[in-house]
Fold:
Amino acid sequence: MSIRAVVWDVDDTLFDYTTADREGMRSYLTAEGLLSGYGTAEQAVARWREVTDQHWARFSAGGITFEDQRRDRVRAFLEREMTDVEADDWLVRYWPHYEAAWSIFPDVLPVLDALAASHRHAVLSNSSIHVQDYKLRALGLHDRFEAVLCAAELGVSKPEAGAFLAACEALSLPPHQVAYVGDHPEIDGRGAADAGLLSVWIDRYGGTATVELPAGRHRIASLAELPAILGADTRFGARSTFG
Structure:
């Protein structure tokens, strides 16, 4: 099987979302004088991630718009009624703190450089193009990708096969010639495999290292392991220790 293109997830795959979200929220709550209401910074961040996951699941299921899930996260986090304008304003004030903490993982540029001549590249994210296009430009990555596709505009989100097949269509390639790299074992890993792509799950934190993967799905701890899986003609990286 010849893999001709790699489609990438963004958050916690290329972009260190977990760190940016934690540090941005800590900074923002301190500036707003709200941190004491949550006990500790860690408890505040844990609550923010909890409501984020809850309302993101509603959006992924098609129950609400991308904008509404963002506003509902704020209402749930603050535990009070807010108009759309008030919720949007709260997020506008939060954004500079969040963006100040943005960074890519250190293995991203080396692997993109190593695969630049051998593979085409695109992005598929369960977010909106407005958010991810801006993020990729700010991080200096946007020009690395032929296409950037997001669930909010596609009308279908991962792990649905239609999302992955849309990325393949954007590249004019069949699924078996495309690899997908993402950080979530089900949304990314299973979804890509079920859609017929080569599935590569990057398990950066090793929290689920005992999970048994079905045949044909790969788990890596670093993007340095990706070229060997793709069979790329490069000296970069090493074979995955997970198989």
About this structure: The longest strand covers residues 120-125. The first helix runs from residue 17 to 32. The radius of gyration is 18 Å.
